Structures are given as C-alpha cells and as structure tokens.
Amino acid sequence: MSATETVPAVEATSVTKIFNRGKPNEILALDDVSVAVGRNEFMTLIGPSGCGKSTLLRLMAALTHPSDGEISVHGKPADQARQDRDYGMAFQTAGLFDWRTVSQNIELPLQLMGWSKSDRRERADEMLDLVRLEGFGGHYPRELSGGMQQRVAIARALSFSPSILLMDEPFGALDEITREHMQAELLRIWDETHTTVVFVTHSIPEAVFLSERVLVMSPRPGTISAEVIVDLGHRDFDTRESEKFFERVTAVREALRVPEEPA
Amino acid sequence: MIERLRSMSPPIIVGIVGLVAWELVLQVLQPDGFVLPPPSDIVASLIATWDAIWIAVQSTGFVIVTGLLFGIAWGVLGALVVSWYRLADEMLTPLAIGVSAIPIIALAPIFNAWFGLLSPRSNQLIVVLLVFFPIFINTTRGLTDIDPDQIDLMRSYGASRWQITKEVRIPNAMPFFFTALKISAALAVIAAIVSEYFGGRQDALGPLIVQNAGLARYPDAWAAVLAGSLIGIGLYALARVVERFAMPWQTAVNQGVEG
Amino acid sequence: MTGWTKRGTRLALLLAALAMVAAACGSTDDTTTTSTAAEAAPAEMTDVALQLQWFTQAQFAGYFAAVDQGFYEELGLNVEILEGGVDIVPATVLASGAADFALSWVPRALVPREEGLDIVNIAQPFQRSGTLQVAFADSGIATPADLEGKIVGNWGFGNEFELLAGLRSAGLDPDTDVTLAQQQFDMLALLAGDIDAAQAMTYNEYAQVLETVNPDTGELYQPEDLNVINWSDVGTAMLNDGIWADAGRLESDSEYRETAVKFVEASLKGWIWCRDNPDECVQVVLSNAPILGQSHQTWQLNEISALIWPSPLGVGVMDQTLWDQTIEIATSEQILQAAPEGTAYITDIAQEAVDNLKSQGLDVVGNDWQRVEVELVEGGN
C-alpha cells in the first residue's frame, strides 16, 4: 500500500505541446510543464484564456499527446490509463445525449464496458442518489435545467468509479447561484467517493472554494507560474464569507496578474 | 389526446373555412373560368371515375413507394460511407451537390429511351434521384455535425469507431434524416407524376391529369391531382409516425423542471 | 432548404426556355406561308389564325395551298397557320381565343364541348376516318378482341377515342383488359417491340413502317408483314378532321361569321386545287416543312384525298347520317356522357361556301378522283 501512495495519481513531466508544428500557424501551447497530483487531492488549474489549461487536461486524458515530455497516470502511460478506464471527464457543456434518458446517459460508459443491464441499472440508480436526482432517471436531458444536466454529467463521469475525475469548466455555463450550489454538491460527492479531481476553471472564487491547491498558469506559452495553497479546511456555505477566503482569493488574483514590464 | 386535438384544430378550422369559401364563391359567382372547379365537383368526379383513379393510384403509387425506398436506402448508405471515410466525402459530396443542380425531371425522356417506354424503371429512377439528394445531404450533415465534446467523451471511454457511429452519429443524424424524409415524400410524388407526363403507361396519375386537362375535363384532372395529393399526405403522415416512434425523446414535453 | 429552391428555379427556367422555343417553332410557319402571285388584294385584310391538330404535313394540304395560291388573300384574309402537337388540343386553343378556327376530330372536340367549351363545327372536309391500329402479322392480333392483355399504344389526348370505342364494342374494359401506353408520334415503339399494337393513320404512320427496312429481310417492310385493324371496318370509326369555330362569337359577331364563310370557302378551294394538282400540292407542303420527305407526303396526300373525295353533298358540308353515326358510337361507348346539347354543327356556312365555289365552276363532289399508286422509299424521302 505504501508504495502506491507515493505514486502520484496524475503526473505531467516536462510536458511541451506544439500545435501545427512546422506550419506557419504553429502554436506553442505548453512549455515544459510539470505537475503532480496526489491521490484524493482536489487540484485546480486556473489561468487566462489560451493559457493551455484545457490542453493540459486533455493531455492527461490521453485525448491528445505531448510533443515532448511524459504523462503518467498511477504510474502508467496515459493511453494505458484511458484503456483501463481510470478516469471520468466532465465538460462545460454537459454533453449529454439528447436521445438517451438521464439513466441511459449515466449508463453509457457502463454499456460500452459491457456491463449487464441489471448491473447498469443498479449503478445508475446509485449515481442518481449520489447527485440528488432520484426519480429523474426517466426524463430526457431537454427536460432538465442546466444545473441538473451538469449533475447528470458528473454522475455519468463517476458511474464506473474512476479514481480520477477530470473537469473542464463544468460550471462555466451556469448562473452564479446554481454555480455555488453545484460547487458544494461537487465537494460533497468528492468527499463521498474519494476521487482525485483535476479541475480547470476561469473563476478565482471557484478555484479557491473547491480546492486545496491552485496552480496558476501563465498566458501562452503555458507554464505553471505559481502555486497557491488553500488551507481552508472543510468548506461550507459560510466559507465564502470568511476573511481567510477573501485573502486566498486575493493571493490567487495577484498570482494571475501579468508581471509588469520593467521600465 | 385532448391536447393534441386542440393543437390540431386551428389548421383544421382554417382548412374547412377555406373549402367552404371556395365552394360558395364558385357556386354563387359561377365565373366562366372553369379551370378551377368547386370542391364538390372534384369530389364527385373522384367518386365517378374511381375505378380509373384507383388503377392509376396503384400504378403511380408503386413507382412512388419503390423509388422512395431505394432513394432512402442509397441516400443513407452514401451518407454512412461519406461519414466514415474523409476521402469519400471529398470525392463524392461535391459531385452529389453538382448533380443535384441538374433538373432531374428533364432527364425523363432520356430515361424513357434507355429503359423502354413502358418500363417503370425510368420513372423509378427519376424518383430515386430526386429522393436521394436531400436524404444524402441531410443525413451526412447529421452524421458529421457532432458536438466534439461528445466524440471526445466516447474516445475517453475507448469506444470503437462503430460504437461511436451507433451511439452518437446515428442518433444525432435522426432529426436531420426525418426532415429530409418528409421533404422526400412530397418530392417523390411530384417526381413520379411529372415523369409520367413524358410517356409510358396511360393508366397512371400523370397521364390522367395532363390528358384530362388537355380535353378540358377539369374536374377529372383535379380529381387525379387530389388523388396524388392524398398519396403525398399519406406518406408524410407515415413519416411522422415513424419519426415519433424512432425519436421518443423529441416528443418529451419541455417543462423546464427547476433544480 | 436552399438546395431545392435553386433546383426548382433552374427547372422553372428550363421549362420556360423550352416553352419559348416551342412557341417560336410554332410561329416559324407564318414566316414561310407568304403567298405567291398576289392578285389585286382588297385593301382591308382580316387576320385569321388557324390551329392545326398536328404538325405541318399533307394532312392539312388544302389550307397551305389556299395560302400559297392566294385563295385567302383574294377574299381579304391574312391567315396564320399554327402547328399542332402531341399535347395541343385544338378545341381548347380555339376556346381560349388563341386561334379563330381550329381543325379537330369530331369526338376530340365534342368532349371538351361537353365540359363547357362553346365551339361548333362549321365544316367537315373529311368524310371518312383514317385511324388504324397496327400490329405485326405474326403477333396474332387481327381483331379488337385480340388486343386483350396486350400493350396497346395510342397518342392519348382524345386521339384514342375510336380505339376505346372499338375495345368496348369487343367487350373489353380499356382500364383493366389492356395496357394502354402513351405512344410517340412515330412507330418506333412498335418496331422496337415495346408495344404490341400501335396507333397509326392510313396516311402517315402506317406508311412509316413501310418506309423502314426490315432487319430480317434487308428490304422494306411489306403490307403483308402487318395486320391492320381499320376502325371504319370494325364500325367504331368516328369523323376525323373538321373545321371548328367559336359558337358564341358566331352568334354575336357578324363580321366573324362573314370571315368564317370566306375562310371555309378559300380552304375548300385549296382542297379542290390539291385534288386536281397533287404534285404541285405536295411541293407546297414541302415548302412549308422542308424536313418532310417527298414520297411520304405524296402517299399522304393520296390517302387524305381518299378520306375527302368523293363528297356527295359537296366538300365540307356535314352529312347528317355520318354525324349521327359518330354520336351514336360516342355515346354508346362512353366517350361522351350524352348526345351533344344544343347545336354542335351547322351546315349553312359550308353550304354557302360550296355554292360560291360551284358558281365559280369548280367540282365540289370529286366523283372522278382516283387513288394513284405511290412508291415508298426508305425514310420517306
């Protein structure tokens, strides 16, 4: 057990990503980035648009490959981890399939993995309970609000109990009130499932509220410019009004500020 | 059920009012332009010439239905091939769009010469060609115009190309396909009837319309037109039923559940 | 769907272009029907349009001759001849006002008349019908009853009424006992074997077969190679080409009636001239439609004359017995729903025209006319 505990859940080592290499529109998206995410950790990547945070997440998901450097998940190459179904993903648009009911959406990865019908149904019900959408299994995504759809997306992402959850601005399209509510829900789920979460966001308060460690990225080419530790302990609805919260938010904001050019 | 009737009633009422107005205007004014007879004359003619019309409906109907089925089959097959192979897309889709600009119906006399005057093949081919293009173009769009996040999601599950096609592309394409299907149903009727104007069997709706019109037997001509319209409406309704059956998620009422 | 709109627009443009070309073709006639040897023409000319019921050919020789010989011009008429076609129904053209007079087979005009077109027959040059149904001798088709279960070609649009009457008189239902096929105005479908029996006129399509080389023998087809059902023999023939006018206009417009008399008189004079000068008459026809073949038109004029002459009552004057016979067949074989209401034909105009011609010393009966032997050549040239 102790050996696995020292292996990070996700590790990026000196990762560089270049798009359209050799062509006139060549872009250096990530430049020598190294990140290590521990087991059960909730880590957030934050940065301005185009800084490469989504690219980094997709590299971790083995949806694309580094031009240089290495990604490993639980000590395995990312591709292997993908095949082993070690992680689930959630995006800004819930990406639910209109033509499947809520339950059927949650069951999708299980179906692809060959689970039996009854096993799938049982797991879907469990997940619905987890995200507090009991009774909505027979509805179609169209009938649900944005927040509810995101909850279904999360349920789907966790349905096969991945050890890692990769999330790319999942609450970006929601209004402020729903968003804060969903943040609390996500923390509760994280607490219950002991998943490692890598979370990408634009929102500073969201990053601070959700995670223990916030990695700040610089504008393109993306690098990790700062790391902000958020030691707020257990989060609840009062947390956002505390002085410590405000102070951590300021710390992140300052870390995001582009350094001024020397005069 | 009541809801459905209530939502259908405005068009039904407009239709009935329109028919009554048409009948009254022509009966009262009795204008000399008898090219458009009152509905009562048309229906009377339909009943009187029913035997000939029924034979024609079977003849033309056969061409319509077979042409529609083959056009749909080829259209869907073409769309699938083009969605799988980028090379096929680059080769075939511009060709398809180019060919679709040709007035297909104008080829009817040429097809008659190829296949022989009495063969239904020439008429069927016209129908197939006119049905193929909307089905092909729309279904291709539906198969390829996919939210990239959904594809990424499937890839993250390690889904195979076939699984992606089955679980994402095909269901996504269904609304596009059914839109094209409903258009094609109408086109198939038009295509079959007009292709019959250029020669062939005379026991079909096309000759009935054009020859009766030529002899000033306008109620008979319109009765044949009505028969053709009923075929078109019937096919459209059938398409709607199949659509409802195939896409149950479309009919789920949007009720904006709060949460 | 933008694709459909583009396609629909192109189709509409193509059809419009075709229509314009067709109209232009129809009107090229009047540039070629300039009259020769104009006598002292009256100062005021009346424009008259005549709608033929087919394409230009010797079937209408009398009218072209009347233009060519100045017969119309003598009487103050400037006649434009409108060619017909497969789907042109002369009666409806007449009723629409696009023509002042129209040539039409009697039943083919009576059907639209029954639907309300106000037209009337003012002269009947063709005493006899030349309609046939032709099959190959080895097809086994010799009588109407033999057509059962066969593919029977016809031109539709009212040309098929004698065939329908013939089928019904043989106890067959045209809708279910035979397959009726729309035939082009040639015999290719019969020669290709697409149809078992083809519609033909004695004076035209029948000869087209005899002008074609039989691939089996390398010689022209011979009359023995063909079986001919002649509706006159069967007894369901109905009157062919007659001259029709707008009935309402005749009653209300006295000038129109005057014009009608003159038109009929000059037209009949043209037919008489063609009877007496067949070779020159063929040349007149050819000058109006140069693509036609001389030998074929010579055959045609010969056969047409057989339908006209002799005319015991005087050419163009309707024989009531023949009219009644046509009506009897038409009503009993369900071509017409009932005998025509009101006055469907009048004889006074034709009678007046014939009297005028007699007073000019012309032979209006043609008892002495004889068929001549016409040799057919390949292609009818």
Written overview of the protein:
The complex is a heterotrimer of chains A (263), B (259) and C (381). Chain A is of the alpha/beta class and 263 residues long. Chain A has nine helices and ten strands. The longest helix of chain A is centred in the C-terminal third of the chain and has 18 residues, at 176-193. The mean pLDDT of chain A is 88. Chain B is flat. The model of chain B is unreliable at 253-259 (pLDDT under 50). Chain C has helices at 2-27, 29-32, 61-68, 71-74, 90-96, 106-114, 161-169, 188-192, 205-210, 231-234, 247-252, 254-276, 278-288, 294-308, 320-332, 348-359; strands spanning 46-51, 77-82, 101-105, 119-123, 131-136, 151-154, 179-182, 198-201, 226-230, 241-246. The longest helix of chain C has 26 residues, at 2-27. Strand 1 of chain B pairs antiparallel with strand 7 (179-182) of chain C.
Summarize the structure.
By secondary structure, chain B is an all-alpha fold.
User: Based on helices, strands and strand pairing, what is the structural class of chain B?
Assistant: mainly alpha
Q: What ranges of chain B have pLDDT less than 50 throughout 5 or more consecutive residues?
A: 253-259
Whole-number mean pLDDT of chain A? 88
When the domains of chain B are counted, the total is 1
Relevant terms:
heterotrimer, A: 263 residues, alpha/beta, four-stranded antiparallel sheet, 9 helices, 10 strands, 37% helix, B: 259 residues, mainly alpha, MetI-like fold, 10 helices, 79% helix, disordered C terminus
Task: Itemize the secondary structure elements and their pairings.
The complex is a heterotrimer of chains A (263), B (259) and C (381).
Chain A: H1 2-6, E1 10-19, E2 27-37, E3 42-46, H2 53-60, E4 68-73, E5 76-77, H3 78-83, E6 87-90, H4 102-112, H5 117-130, H6 146-158, E7 164-168, H7 176-193, E8 196-201, H8 204-210, E9 213-217, E10 224-229, H9 243-256
Parallel strand pairs in A: 3-8, 3-9, 6-7, 7-8
Antiparallel strand pairs in A: 1-2, 1-4, 4-5, 9-10
Chain B: H1 2-29, H2 39-48, H3 50-84, H4 86-100, H5 108-115, H6 121-144, H7 148-156, H8 161-196, E1 200-201, H9 205-214, H10 218-246
Chain C: H1 2-27, H2 29-32, E1 46-51, H3 61-68, H4 71-74, E2 77-82, H5 90-96, E3 101-105, H6 106-114, E4 119-123, E5 131-136, E6 151-154, H7 161-169, E7 179-182, H8 188-192, E8 198-201, H9 205-210, E9 226-230, H10 231-234, E10 241-246, H11 247-252, H12 254-276, H13 278-288, H14 294-308, H15 320-332, H16 348-359
Parallel strand pairs in C: 1-2, 1-3, 6-7
Antiparallel strand pairs in C: 3-10, 4-10, 5-8, 5-9
